[in-house]
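Long-time lurker, first post. I've been practising inverse folding by hand and with some scripts of my own, and I keep getting stuck on stretches where the structure tokens seem ambiguous. Below is the full token string for one chain I'm working on. Before anyone asks, I'm not after the true native sequence, just a reasonable design that respects the backbone. If someone could post their per-position residues I'd love to compare against what I wrote down in my notebook.
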């Protein structure tokens, strides 16, 4: 009887001690400030979706991240599913986080992606080329291969020279979402979709890609007869896409996606391709089905004529009628 009474007294005491320990755990404080850096938690109080990271997960991530900051000039902002770190003014970093990153994430998930990246990823926004090159080497031990920015799956980071604008940032945001939702996606569609949105805005409440700087180069390649058949483009592996006539491959992939977008078929194609990727690993058959075409050589001729009629920065394009003539 005495032993049972001791047990009954000890159980509530243990519960009380656990509660006190939980309340004293600093990782559960989602509004803590990193030394020398501003930390914002814009989603405090918002219910966490199943399978996503909790506020405490982000807080622990920031706690580890702040130990690696190159200087006290960096502002850190939690913008799910990312953590944004920048050495511009806190106001500017917050503006990038809300007006570019949050906007792009919301719009991409609206049309394409149901799953967030499987890990918390950092978005580094360096204020100019000097900061970009210096801090990329300091943090990651490498020199950037592009003056604009890139996504590194190995470093779990998007690394940006934000002085070049937000276009590359939106482009690179596409890649970790493709990685999480469509891991077998071939490079042509991964880069076609990403590059489509490197010049983008909002139309009828949805993300919309516009003509951009890739157009003149593609038009030159079309006139020179250097654009391959779509069956060849879609079958390219990573080495072929990124190393063999890289510029033309990017341009062709982007403006195929642009064409599908302008016909109201891009989201339909993505869903068709995603659903049948095992049977159609390149997406070529899904492309034929979405277009309602068998003769892709004839389509390529019509697509080339369409692309040659586009103008950079001018969106009232000569869209072909539904029969493609």
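-- Answer (accepted) --
I ran through it position by position. Result:
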């Amino acid at each position: 009887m005495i032993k049972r009474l001791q047990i009954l007294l000890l159980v509530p005491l243990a519960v009380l001690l656990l509660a006190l320990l939980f309340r004293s755990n600093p990782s559960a404080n989602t509004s803590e400030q990193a030394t020398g850096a501003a930390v914002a938690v814009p989603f405090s109080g918002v219910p966490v979706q199943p399978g996503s990271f909790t506020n405490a997960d982000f807080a622990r991530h920031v706690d580890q991240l702040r130990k690696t900051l190159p200087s006290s000039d960096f502002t850190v902002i939690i913008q799910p599913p990312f953590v944004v770190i920048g050495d511009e003014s806190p106001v500017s970093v917050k503006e990038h986080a809300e007006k570019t990153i949050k906007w792009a994430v919301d719009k991409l998930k609206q049309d394409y992606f149901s799953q967030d990246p499987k890990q918390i990823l950092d978005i580094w926004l360096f204020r100019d080329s000097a900061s970009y090159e210096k801090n990329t080497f300091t943090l990651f031990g490498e020199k950037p291969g592009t003056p604009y920015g890139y996504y590194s799956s190995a470093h779990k980071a998007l690394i940006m020279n934000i002085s070049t604008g937000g276009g590359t940032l939106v482009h690179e945001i596409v890649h970790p979402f493709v990685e999480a939702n469509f891991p077998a996606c071939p490079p042509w569609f991964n880069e076609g979709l990403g590059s489509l949105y490197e010049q983008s805005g909002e139309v009828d409440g949805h993300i919309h890609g516009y003509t951009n700087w890739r157009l003149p180069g593609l038009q030159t390649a079309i006139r020179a007869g250097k654009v391959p058949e779509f069956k060849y483009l879609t079958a390219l592996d990573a080495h072929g896409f990124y190393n063999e006539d890289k510029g033309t491959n990017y341009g062709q992939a982007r403006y195929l996606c642009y064409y599908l977008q302008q016909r109201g078929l891009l989201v339909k194609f993505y869903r068709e391709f995603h659903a049948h990727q095992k049977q159609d690993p390149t997406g070529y058959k899904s492309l034929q089905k979405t277009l309602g075409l068998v003769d892709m050589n004839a389509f390529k001729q019509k697509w080339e004529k369409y692309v040659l009629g586009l103008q950079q920065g001018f969106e009232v394009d000569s869209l072909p009628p539904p029969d493609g003539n």
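A couple of notes from the structure itself: The longest helix spans residues 2-23. The chain has 13 helices and eight strands. Happy to go over any region you disagree with.
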